[in-house]
Design brief:
The protein has 240 residues and is an alpha+beta fold. It is 37% helix and 16% strand. Strand 4 and strand 5 form a beta hairpin. The chain is elongated, with a radius of gyration of 19 Å. The relative contact order is 0.19.
Length: 240
């Protein structure tokens, strides 16, 4: 049986499919798991190597092939993400236990958005196909918001354990405030309001009401801010 789980960290509404998109350091870790099952062999341990393994390269190639086929830009491989993913794959294999890295958001540095797929199976292709047949895992793989990836894989008695770590790095404040025009508060209307609502998972009415203000406040509090519920330049920069 191959089993897999996906998680990403997100601003609330991005987790509709069960992969909890961790977006921004702002967002709360919403943990939802997607399970996928197919035939599997049992498994022993091969230690991770310093350079990318053939199995890891295959996963990365399949991820980028799927993105290209969907018209999504390919992901750049980052050694830091590979190290995090490889360490976690090794941890799961040594424990013969499939679960998400609880320290993902601290193990990965410089992230704006970060996510993770984990799974195991008889071979890399089987696991990748299972990922693509699971809406939550597929959503992580095809997410346009991610720009980087690191794949780590370990083999135990014929069972391939894998962790895929996705990231979009933080932007500088000068770039992240592009598109900001004015402060948004109760009574504000227009395209900017719709953009904020879409990012936070609020109905995109274009009117800044109490529900939108509450969503903004929760977002701000997750950053450790006071949570006044007003979108100024600083909040806009964190959202976008």
């Amino acid at each position: 049986m191959i089993t897999s789980r996906s998680r990403s960290v997100a601003i609330p509404a991005r987790g509709a499919l069960g992969a909890t998109p961790v977006r921004d350091r702002a967002a709360a870790l919403l943990t939802a798991f997607a399970l996928v099952v197919v035939a599997l062999l049992t498994g022993a341990v091969a230690a991770p190597r310093a350079s990318a393994s053939t199995v890891e390269d295959l996963f990365t190639s399949k991820i980028n092939h799927a993105r290209a086929a969907d018209g999504v830009p390919k992901l750049a491989t980052r050694s830091h993400l590979v190290s995090v993913a490889r360490s976690w794959a090794s941890t799961m294999a040594s424990q013969t236990r499939l679960y998400h890295n609880p320290e993902l958001t601290s193990d990965v540095d410089n992230w704006r958005w970060v996510g993770e797929n984990v799974g195991y199976g008889p071979d890399a292709l089987t696991v990748h196909v299972a990922f693509m047949n699971s809406p939550a895992h597929k959503a992580n793989i095809l997410d346009r918001d991610y720009t980087e990836v690191g794949v780590g894989s370990v083999v135990r008695n014929g069972r391939v354990w894998v962790a895929e770590v996705f990231r979009r790095p933080m932007r500088t404040s000068s770039v992240s405030t592009v598109g900001y025009t004015h402060r948004l508060d109760i009574g504000s209307t227009g395209a900017a309001v719709k953009r904020v609502q879409a990012r936070l998972g609020v109905n995109t009415t274009g009117y800044y009401g109490t529900y939108t203000k509450g969503a903004v406040s929760r977002f701000q509090k997750s950053l450790g801010w006071q949570g006044r519920g007003i979108v100024g330049r600083r909040t806009w920069g964190r959202l976008f």
